[in-house]
């Protein structure tokens, strides 16, 4: 059986990326991270573009309309599987259908912008002035001339070996399977993240693409992409000194967004990635219930020799706290199965030796 699962988050679906830079194979240069302050970890919001917290939230859209658009975005990414690519590096982002945005600040002083969070590509880039060709974006386009921490990478820099150069500036070019593309200067800048703890986290010497020629199917809700992939140029590896390569994220369900909820997705970096929010005394499979601890579950039957025992919900689920019930069937760790007293409750149990 093949299941077609509708997802509102196209950003994490596979498609193809072509990077025409041989330097990206060893892009993370450790001298760039020397002298950084120690950071234990931080957590950021992942903002669905339909949520109330998104600056691009459209209150005129009904829940049904949002759902239909999500269906359209979910199914449309499949068309990219058929794109033929002859280059060596691929990625998993459809830029025009990206759903989850990260708010970051670039430069000194920091300029706020929204970028698509992408676990499938490596290069982080944003649109930059002067624009030879830029798509429309709702936030101001980053002007590197206004930043005191902006630096271009020169042609003789080790990071630029094998790459194109123009006026002693190392150039990059990225093209996507749907013919979207970005080109510009390979540069270094300070990135600032507004952690949900209230403390800003600033990290200098981040290598990124300052895009002067960008186009295709990008929409105005973003200025570029933040690459969270596994390659050396990924911002995850560039921040290795701070986060040790660790991050987690939790995406809120689509139905909460359709109900115009204030629920927010989060992405955690560094020491904040410890997964805790669902085990109760070894019971790991837990569900929300009504106020009486009741949930709607399918019929469960224990099959014995010549006898079937149909169990009720109270035989196999227990309320561990108000509004939370957990499955009480757990692995025994040996070859013996035990029908415990909870499963025996409300039955007349008789023994005949």
UniProtKB/TrEMBL annotation:
Q: PROSITE patterns in the record, alphabetically?
A: PEPTIDASE_A1 (PS51767)
Q: Which UniProt keywords apply?
A: Aspartyl protease, Glycoprotein, Hydrolase, Protease, Signal
Instruction: Please provide the Gene Ontology terms (biological process) for this protein.
Output: proteolysis
Organism of this sequence? Solanum commersonii (Commerson's wild potato)
Domain named Peptidase A1 is located at 100-353
Record-given protein name: Peptidase A1 domain-containing protein
* Pfam families associated with the record: TAXi_C (PF14541), TAXi_N (PF14543)
Q: Metal-binding among the record's keywords?
A: no
GO annotation, cellular component aspect: extracellular region
The similarity comment for this entry is: Belongs to the peptidase A1 family.
Concerning InterPro entries, the annotation shows: Pepsin-like_plant, PEPTIDASE_A1, Peptidase_aspartic_dom_sf, Plant_Aspart_Prot_A1, TAXi_C, TAXi_N
Molecular function (GO) terms for this protein are: aspartic-type endopeptidase activity
